[in-house]
Amino acid sequence: MRDTDGMAALGQQGRPVDEVIAELTDKRSGDVKWSDGKTFGMVYDGGPSVHEVAEQAARLYLHENALNTQAFPSLRQIQSDVVGWTADLLNGDENTAGFLTSGGTESILCGVLAARKRGLAERNITEPEMVLSESAHAAFHKAADNFGLTVHKAPVREDYTANVEAMASMVNDNTVLVVGSAPQYPQGVQDDIPSIAALAKSVGANCHVDACMGGFVLPFAERIGRDVLPWDFRVDGVTTISADIHKLGYAPKGVSVILHNTKESRKYQTFVFDDWLGGFYASPNMQGTRSGLPMACAWAVMQHLGVDGYIDLTQQTLVNADLMRAGIMAVDGVRVLGEGQFHLVAMAAEPDSGIDMFALGDALLERGWYHDRQTPPDNLHSTVSNTNTGVIDQYLVDLSECVATAGTTDDRSTTYATLE
Predict the structure, then answer these.
(1) Which of 83-92, 195-204, 347-356, 402-411 has the lowest mean pLDDT?
(2) pLDDT for 7
(3) Which of 91, 156, 275, 375 is 20 to 30 A from 354 (CA-CA)?
C-alpha cells in the first residue's frame, strides 16, 4: 500500500518479529560487506572481542536517554570518563573539559559555535569570520552556514598541507576561529598546527584542530615511533579539538569527543534556558535527547582495548596503509596524492595516463572493493584501518588488473553524454 506521495504507508496491522527481522536482513544484501575487509572506510573493525563488548554494552543501554543525567547518572559518569581518557591521550591538563557528541560533524559544529559565542562575549564581534584551508572538512562550511560566519578559504601548498602564509593574509579583527587538521581527510597529510595556533592567538581567536580522523591514531602512532608533528594540547594556542571514537577508536557509530582547553571555553557551546513552562532545559551540544547506547559502547570499547590494544590496532593499520601506498606507487598509471604517513590514502591517475579514476573505481567495486570518490583531481579515497588486515595484497593484484583495463577520460565523456 502506498500513500498519495508515493511513499509506503505503515501497515494497519503489525508483523511478527521474525518476519520483520528477515526483511531487514534482506534489505542489507546490497550494502557493502565491510566485514570482509574490502571497504576502505565507513565502518572500522576492531576484531571479535571489540564486537562482543560493544554489542553487550549496546544491549544494556539501548533505551537510556542522556538528555537527563539526573535520571541516568551512569551516563554522566560514562561521559566524564570517556572525555577524561581522551583528554589524557591528547595531552590535556586538569583544566581540559568537553562533551560527547554524535560524530565529527557535531563536534565541529560545537567548536565553531563556541568560537562564535566567545568572539561576541569577549570581543563584541557581531560579524564573525573563520579562516581555514581548502582541505578543511566540509562540516566547517556547514557550521558557518548554520551559525552565520563568513569563511575565508586559503589554498593548500603543493604537498596539500595548509598554506599558513595565505591564511595569515585573511585574518582580521572579526576572525573568531582559525582551523587546522591533524591529519586532513582528502590526502591524509598533517597541517602545521603550531603555526596555525600562533596565527589564531595573534588575533585573539580560537584555534580548532580537526582530529576526527587522527585523534585515535596519532597518539598511538607517536608511541610506536612514528614521526608525528606537534598537534594536540601541547601546542600553545590550541583551543578545541574534535576526535571521533567511532572511527579509529573502533566504537560503533556514532560517538565523538569535543575537547576544550578550559572549562571557560566549554561553557560557550552549552545552551541553558529556563524561561518556559517546561522548566529548566540545558543541552551541551546540538542534540537534546541523546541515546546512551553509543556513549556506553565507546566506554566499553576503550576500557576493553586500553592503550596497549590501541597501539596494536594502530600498528596494524599503519602496516596496512604503508603496504597499500607502496603497492599503488608500483602500478603504472596511478599515484598517491601527497605524502601521508598515516592511514589515509588518495589515489589518482598519473598525468597524461588518460585513466578514468571513477571508471577504475567502478571496476574495483565489481570485485567488491569500495572507495569514496573525490575531486579535484578525480581520485579514489581510502581510510585504511585494521578492517583491511590480510586483504591488501589481493587488493593490489586486483588494482593492477583493473588499471590495465580501465577506461579513459575520453571514454567517460562519451558515456556521460549518452547518459544525459
Answers:
(1) 402-411
(2) 78
(3) 156
The domain limits of the chain are 54-303, 306-411
Using a 10 angstrom Cβ sphere, with 0-12 exposed, 13-18 middle and 19 or more buried, the burial of residue 134 is middle
Predicted local confidence at residue 405, as pLDDT: 87
Residue 412 has pLDDT above 60, yes or no: no
Is residue 360 within 8 A of residue 336, CB to CB? The reply is: no
Half-sphere exposure of 365 (CA within 13 A, CB side): 14
Report, at the CATH architecture level, how domain 54-303 is classified: 3-Layer(aba) Sandwich (3.40)
pLDDT at 414: 35
CB 226 within 8 Å of CB 318: yes
- When pLDDT is averaged across residues 245-265 and rounded to a whole number, the result is 96
CB 91 within 8 A of CB 234: yes
Average pLDDT, the chain: 93
All residues at 6 or more sequence positions from 105 whose CB lies less than 8 Å from its CB, including other chains: 139, 142
What CA dihedral angle connects 244, 250, 253 and 257, to 10 degrees?
-20
Query: 206, 240 in Cβ contact below 8 A?
Result: yes
Cα 374 from Cα 378, distance rounded (Å)? 6
Beta strand 379-383 with 344-349 is antiparallel
Rounded Cα distance, 241 and 238, in Å: 8
Mean pLDDT within 246-263: 96
6-50 pLDDT, tens digit each? 678 899 999 999 999 999 999 998 888 888 889 999 899 999 999
Sign of CA dihedral 228, 162, 182, 339: negative
Say what angle helices 292-329 and 392-405 make with each other, to 10 degrees. Answer: 60
Q: pLDDT band at 5, cuts 50/70/90?
A: low
What separation, in Å, do the N-terminal and C-terminal C-alpha atoms of the chain show?
33
3-state secondary structure 295-306: HHHHHHHHHHHH
Phi-psi label, residue 33: left if phi above 0, alpha if psi -120 to 50, beta otherwise: beta
Q: How confident is the model at residue 286 (pLDDT cuts 50, 70, 90)?
A: confident
Q: Which CATH class is domain 306-411?
A: alpha beta
Q: Count Cβ atoms within 10 A of the Cβ of residue 201 and give its class: 0-12 exposed, 13-18 middle, 19 or more buried.
A: middle
Q: Which residues of 314-344 are buried (b: 16+ CB within 10 A; e: fewer)?
A: bbbbbebbbbbbebbeebeebebbbebbbbb
pLDDT > 80? residue 420:
no
